[in-house]
Amino acid sequence: MGKLQLAAKEFLAHGYIFHPKFGGDDYCFSKSFSKASGIYKIKFEITEDSFNRAPFPIVESLPEQLRKRRLPHLLLGKYCCLFSDTSIIDPLNINKLVSSWLHKVEEVIELWESGDYSEDYVAEFSLYWGGIPTYLLESTYLNKNLDVYSFERKAINGNSSREYVVAPEREVAEKWAHSRNSVGLIEYRNSAVFVELTQAPYIHYDHPWPPDSLKDFSNWLLMSSNEPLVLERLLVALAKLGKWSKGWNTFVDVIFHYDREFFGVSFNLPTESRKAIVNHYGPKSRRGRGKQAREKLRKRIFDNSRDKIFPLDVMPCSPDHVIERNRAISSPLLSNKRIALIGAGTIGGYLAHSLSQVGAGHDSGHLVIYDNDVLKVGNVGRHILGIKFIGERKSDSLKYYLEEQGLDLDIRAEGKFNLSSDLSRFDLILDATGDQAFSLNLSSKVSKYRSQGGKILLIHSWISGFGHTAKSMLDDGINGCYACQFDYSKGSVKTELYPSFASGKEPDASHLFKRSCGENHLPFGSEASMLAASLAVQLLRGRNKKAPSLLMRRVSNQAIELKDKKLKKNLDCPSCRN
User: Fold this and answer.
1) Residue 512 burial (CB < 10 Å; 0-12/13-18/19+)?
2) CA pair distance 212, 226, nearest whole angstrom
3) Torsions phi, psi for 521 (to 5 deg)
4) Which of 71, 223, 272, 428 lies 20 to 30 Å from 525 when distance is taken between CA atoms?
5) What separation in angstroms does the CA of 17 have from each of 25, 32, 132, 237?
6) What value does the mean pLDDT take over residues 63-84?
7) Of the ranges 16-25, 68-77, 205-214, 275-284, the best mean pLDDT one
């Protein structure tokens, strides 16, 4: 039985009626739901392609009293949104898949029937609000003066569009516009303020939507039981702008937020209205701020206004928001840390990118990248950097690359790392050189620094077994160091405690290396480098006493499977035992 036939069986089992559709491949099913408020009629149109994601069932009919309401999960007034991430998505089990769709539809209908759906607007309110794309580059808890700038952006496909950016200063806005591929000069528009809402924004069924005038907008915004507090916050925020606008433009942008949801509105605030607000709510005002003053200002500024408003689709893009948004509970947070990354090669490039995404260089911290090598054509095949940077110093190129990501981080580029450097300048050092001799010397340097009372964390990340194994280890001063992974009991020749290959299965190294004057090249793919970088970031996660300090993953089937180890200090270690 095919997928469509299995789906049909499930629809019929749930009381849906099949409707033949001539001239097409669709299977149509409909069902009416009788509730206290009236009849809901839902229709599904299913094809072979419908089983890869949740469909959008058509709402053919709603109870009379709901037809003028702005309902959550109802897109374009016609389609019911099922949210694929909360429904079972298993195209190999058609019965359960279709059943999950049908149960979700019934949940949405019950929600509409209850009338209690204000909280359901929180996560999707911006869909109903829409507006001009507006990027917010400041955190709401920082009480700074904000300005709005506009710029023309040219998309990758060649299309142009206008975007707004809200920033504390012009330089920040210009950097953002540059990262967004702006065309021409960035223009100052007007000032902006924050207002925190007391409850989640939602659309009351009695209110016309979308609001067109300032009066309509204020009636919607201030209709809740918490209206006095919201109006008070709005007036206090507007009073901070002063009596005079910065330029000829008397518009102002107000950014409202509740929890992690944002939306904005731009409207004209004439000088006379500004003066009236400042007279009551300004820092030097001697007039009262009570109910009478609020109502007087509301009537004067909002209720009597027919001015058009312009909705803003506000997207928070501050480094705080971007870094925190995807951080799991145990993920590392490197904000405020002084970090050194030694090696900007194939491992270092991917590692630097990952570090920046978890806060390296954020707030008062900084990330210093050390590498004096120049990117060559041969590097491009497995490096995060592309042909744009050929001939450039890797550390400089990586700094430029990270700054282009738009997170406004403190990234610094240096040449060769000197082992005589003052380690007290760093909280964390990451060794991505893949150079065993350097790593051993660095490990000894760190051990000596700790013996003198210094505190520092050291992570080594490298590719072993001629490209067949990726390894990373954490040296915290408690567990073993980089040198502790070797056996020194056999005299001058050290051997690996955890080799990549079974005894006698090692490949012939002479056929692997491509040698040239002053340089050796070992061919391996970028997957090994990405894996090694990933292991290093894993070692920065929240850890307990039993957590392994040496992580090992094989890249190919030629290597043996190695278990992660909690590396103990080696009694014969020439590094940390001295």
Assistant:
1) middle
2) 23
3) -125, 125
4) 428
5) 17, 9, 43, 56
6) 80
7) 275-284
Residue 393: strand pairing partners: 374
The phi, psi pair for 387, rounded to 5°, reads: -65, -20
Sign of the CA dihedral with 84 first, then 87, 93, and 99 last:
negative
Q: What is the rounded distance in angstroms from the CA atom of residue 183 to the CA atom of residue 6?
A: 53
Q: Please check the confidence at residue 518 and state whether its pLDDT lies above 60.
A: no
CA-based R_g, the chain, Å: 31
Burial 144-177 (b: 16+ CB within 10 A, else e): eebbbbbbbbeeeeeeeeebbbbbeeeebbbbbb
The arithmetic mean of pLDDT across residues 488-492, rounded, is 75
Closest by CA to 463, choosing from 500, 516, 415, is 500
Asked if residues 99 and 9 have their Cβ atoms less than 8 Å apart, the reply is no
Q: Give the per-residue pLDDT at 141.
A: 64
Q: Show Cβ contacts of residue 157 under 8 Å, excluding neighbours closer than 6 positions.
A: none
pLDDT score at 545: 78
- Token representation of residue 117: 């759906």
pLDDT for res 378: 86
Residue 432 and residue 463 in contact, taking contact as beta carbons nearer than 8 Å? no
pLDDT tens digits for range 411-445: 999 999 999 999 999 999 999 999 999 999 999 99
Residues 412, 369 contacting (CB under 8 angstroms) = yes
Query: Rounded mean pLDDT of the chain?
Result: 87
Range of the domain at 144: 124-316
Shared-domain flag, residues 38 and 186:
no
Same domain, 168 and 29: no
All residues at 6 or more sequence positions from 310 whose CB lies less than 8 Å from its CB, including other chains = 131, 132, 265, 266, 267
Please tell me the least confidently modeled range out of 101-105, 118-122, 291-295.
118-122
Asked if the structure places residue 112 within a domain, the reply is yes
3-state secondary structure 507-552: CCHHHCCEEECCEEECCCCHHHHHHHHHHHHHCCCCCCCCCCCEEE
CA dihedral (569, 573, 576, 578) positive or negative = positive
**Looking at the structure, do residues 426 and 334 belong to the same domain, yes or no?**
yes
